[in-house]
Amino acid sequence: MADEDDDIILADLNDEELVEQMFDDLYDGMKDEIEDAVHILLDRGWAPYRILTEALVGGMKIVGEDFRDGILFVPEVLLAANAMKGGMAILKPLLAETGAPTIGKMVIGTVKGDIHDIGKNLVAMMMEGAGFEVVDLGINNPVENYLEAAAAEKPDIIGMSALLTTTMPYMKVVIDTMVAEGIRDDYLVLVGGAPLNEEFGKAIGADAYCRDAAVAVETAKDLIARRHNQRAAG
Amino acid sequence: MTGTPDSDTRASAAPNDATLTAAGLAPTGHGKVLIIACGALAREILALRARHGWDHIDLTCLPAILHNHPEKITDAVREAVARHRTSHDRIFVAYADCGTGGTLQTACAELGVEMIAGPHCYAFYEGLTRFEGLDEITSFYLTDFLVRQFDAFVWTPLGLDRHPELRDMYFGHYETLVYQAQTDDPTLTDLARSHAERLGLQFERRLTGYGDLETAMARWAAAG
């Protein structure tokens, strides 16, 4: 796609064409082009939140679907994520200034013994794109880190990630500790990572297993909405 | 393994690495005991068989590239056990858990076949007890086979051949490439060191030999 795009001048495209082009450029991991397009839309008076949701998140949704369907692979997703990150870096300070809606707060990190954070980073980025405030604990987190962050940040969601079959059981340690301390039901717990599955998520007492970043966003939105409804009904 | 004590004619009967990666190895049909192994262990198992004269052991290997798709290993082992059940008296499985999340252990128990204890080959080459004490979460491991097949298992699947700029997204939290050497081969050591440089990691070489693989095979040879 890159060759076909050589002659395209982004500023000459109308809004609709430009957003379509941004979908293509995200798909192809073209960070510079995404940054240029974000500036163009800002100059045209688009609200930062609209650019984020319609252009960047919309484009990443296609990337996520093609990853799920085996059309794209991890390297391509990483390049796309890197391009989105470029756009997000421009928008993030503006989002804060313009009072964009925040739909929830998430604390996320990879569990103790696990330094693999690609999946966690993708989830954090997509959650931010969807309007969540994300507190990223980074890698190799013992249970204390999750509990301290939960107490300090008061998130709606605690997210745990693991790539290794040797580290994923640690998620149960965190959840069991939350149960023992009587705080388990104060939070939604989402888990993810390549070796996990839905059965594992249920077995350890998580609220949901999320197969990929797009699913994590949809699951988080859905569970938060349900919790609000339950509280409203109660 | 040229120049090593194990480079006899039987060891060299192993197919080339590319074949072991993509296709595996068919059994010869000779021998009462069959080992179903990861293709990444073929040369080592054949070398041990030659060293100890375990002529009653036959070997078949699944494609080594399943290492990159651990969710496929358990079904592949099940199918291989079913296929070879009647042709040999005893079957053993030369895999550790290898990222199957315990499903391979469950399957082997159901099938009544023994496998190798531990999380992966890095653990059994090192010796499971010693490996568990190392606690090296920032180490990236390569064996003899993986040093030779580095591009097929690491560089290309991660897209680093096309996008070297992704390197630090994958390896940024690693510190050291640990080469667990099964054989004392200066050429392989140089190659492993060059892989560490490509990944931006420090290099450490440990001559592990065959570790728990040899112990397991000795038990299986005696059982047959």
Automatic annotation (TrEMBL), chain A:
SMART domains: B12-binding_2. Pfam families: B12-binding (PF02310), B12-binding_2 (PF02607). InterPro entries: Cbl-bd_cap, Cobalamin-bd, Cobalamin-bd_sf, Met_Synthase/Corrinoid, Meth_synthase_dom. One of its GO terms (biological process) is tetrahydrofolate metabolic process. Signal peptide: none annotated. Keywords: Cobalt, Metal-binding, Methyltransferase, Transferase. GO terms for cellular component: cytosol. Residues 103-234 form the B12-binding domain. GO terms for molecular function: cobalamin binding; metal ion binding; methionine synthase activity. Residues 9-103 form the B12-binding N-terminal domain. PROSITE patterns: B12_BINDING (PS51332), B12_BINDING_NTER (PS51337). CDD domains: corrinoid_protein_B12-BD (cd02070). PANTHER family: METHIONINE SYNTHASE. Belongs to the methylamine corrinoid protein family. This is Corrinoid methyltransferase protein, putative. It comes from Salipiger bermudensis (strain DSM 26914 / JCM 13377 / KCTC 12554 / HTCC2601) (Pelagibaca bermudensis).
From TrEMBL, chain B:
Residues 61-216 form the DUF1638 domain. InterPro entries: DUF1638. This is DUF1638 domain-containing protein.
